[in-house]
Amino acid sequence: MIKQKYYLIKTYGCQMNVHESEKLAGVLNLFGYIETSEQLSADIVVFNTCCIRDGAEQKLYAHIGALKSLKKNNPNLIICVCGCASQAEGRAEIIKKKFPFVDIIIGTHNLHVFQEYLESFIENKKYICDVWENEREINENYNALRTSGANAWVNISYGCNNFCSYCIVPFVRGKERSRKMEDIINEVKNLIKEGYKYITLLGQNVNSYGNDIDDKNITFAKLLEKCAKLDGNFKLKFMTSHPKDLTEDVIKTIATNDKICKVIHLPVQSGSNKILKLMNRKYTKEHYLSLIKNIRNHIPDCYISTDIIVGFPCENEEDFMETYNLIKEVQYDGVFAFMYSKRSGTVADKMEEQVSNEIKRKRVNELLKLSKSITKQKNSELIGKVINALVDSYDKEKKGYNTFTDSGKSIFVPSDKNIISIHSFHKVEVKRMINNKLIGEFLN
Ligand code: SAH
Ligand code: SF4
Ligand code: F3S
Predict the structure, then answer these.
(1) Which residues have C-beta atoms less than 6 Å from ligand 2?
(2) Does pTM top 0.85 for this prediction?
(3) CA of 53, nearest ligand number
(4) Mean pLDDT of all residues belonging to the chain
(5) Residue 51, Cβ neighbours under 10 Å: how many?
(6) Which of 49, 140, 254, 289 is least buried, going by the fewest C-beta atoms within 10 A?
(7) What is the CATH number of the domain that holds 398?
(8) Which residue range(s) make up the domain with 431?
(9) CA of 432 to the centre of ligand 1 (A)
C-alpha cells in the first residue's frame, strides 16, 4: 500500500496570499498530497510569505528556523519558501544562508512554475533557488483547491503601480496587470455553479482595474456590473479600493445592485494632508471625506472600514490628531491600524525624522481604543435591525448557529435544533448584545 502523503501550507499576509496558497494546494493535490494541520505528520511544508512590515518578516524567519529539528528527524521532509518575502531584494540569499535545510525557494513571479520545481526536486533531490527579477504575463493555468468555506477569491489584477512611499508591494508583486474581463467572468460563473455564496474580487487597487487594457469600456464599474448581473444565489465583494481611483460610477453600481455587498474597505492611511503627500497617496483629506459623503448618500447603510499607518516619518502630534479626528468623524465600522515599518528600497525608508517606536505604540493604542468604542456603539445601534446573514456552522456545545453578515460581523443565533443548512442566507433580527457579541433570531 502506498503511504498517504501530507502537505502543510503556512500562509502569511493578505488575501492575495490566501488565494495563492489555494493555488499551491491545487498543485500539491495533483502530486497526491492531502492537507494536514500537524507539522509532525507533514511530508512537505510550504511557507507562503509576507514582508509588508518588518515584524511579519521576522516572525516568518523564526517559524522557518523552528523546522530545523523537524528536518533533522525526517530528512525526507520537503521545505519550500515562496511569496513576497522571498521575492524581496536580497531575501532569497538570506534564507539560503540562514536556513540551509530549505529545499525550494521561489518568488512571486514564478509561483505558477511551482509544479515543475516540485517535480524536479522529487526526481533529483537537488536544491532549487529561483527568483525571477520581473513579472511576466498573467498565467491562467491553475486549479485552486479552495479552502475558504463559502467564500471564493478571484484575482482581477496582479501587482501595483502606485508606489505609496512606505510600501514594498510594487517591488515584490510587479507592475499592475489586469486579467481579461471574460476570464474573470467565466471563473465567477463557474464558482456560482459550484455553490460559492460569496465571491470576492481581488486586486491591490481594484479601482484601477483595466487601466492597462487598451479599451475604455473595460473598467471596474463595468466588471462589477457584469458580475452582479449573473444568475444565482450569491453575493459579490471586492478589495482593496484606493481613494484616488474610486469613481462615482463604482459607488452607483454598488448602490443599485442587490448582489453587491454594501461593504467598502477604503484605506485612508492618514488624516493629515502633509503626511498623505509624503506617503504619495495622491488624494487629500478633503477628497477622501467627499468620497465618504458620496458613499453615504448613495448607500446609507454601507459598512466602511479603513487602514491607518501611524508614526510615518515626520508625523507629529498635530498630524496624528488629524487622523484621530478623521476616524471620529467618519465613524468607521472597522479600523486596521499599523505602526509604520521601514522597508528597504522604498522612498520613505530614506526619509529623515523617523518616529520612535514608543510614540508609534502609544498612537496605535489610542486609535485602537477609539475604534473599539465606535464599534461598540455601532453594534448597539444594530439591535432591532434585520440583517442578511450567512449560516456558517452549528455549535453543539453553545447550542446555536454562528452566522456572518456581509461585512463579516458575527451574529450568534441560539437554537436547540440543528436543522438549518450550512452556507445558506437568512434574515436575522439582532436582539441583544452580550459582551460586545451580537445575538439574533432567524426571521425565515
Ligand atoms: N493594496 C492594499 C493593501 C496594501 S497592504 C491597499 O493599498 O490598501 C495593507 C496595509 O498595510 C496598507 O493599507 C497599509 O496600511 C499597511 N502597510 C503597508 N506598508 C506598510 C509599512 N511599511 N508599514 C506599516 N504598514 C504598512
Ligand atoms: Fe502598497 Fe499603495 Fe499599492 Fe496598496 S496601493 S499595494 S499601499 S503601493
Ligand atoms: Fe500581501 Fe504581504 Fe505580499 S500584504 S501582497 S502578502 S507583502
Answers:
(1) 160, 162-164, 167, 169-170, 204-205, 242
(2) yes
(3) 1
(4) 95
(5) 25
(6) 140
(7) 2.40.50.140
(8) 386-442
(9) 35
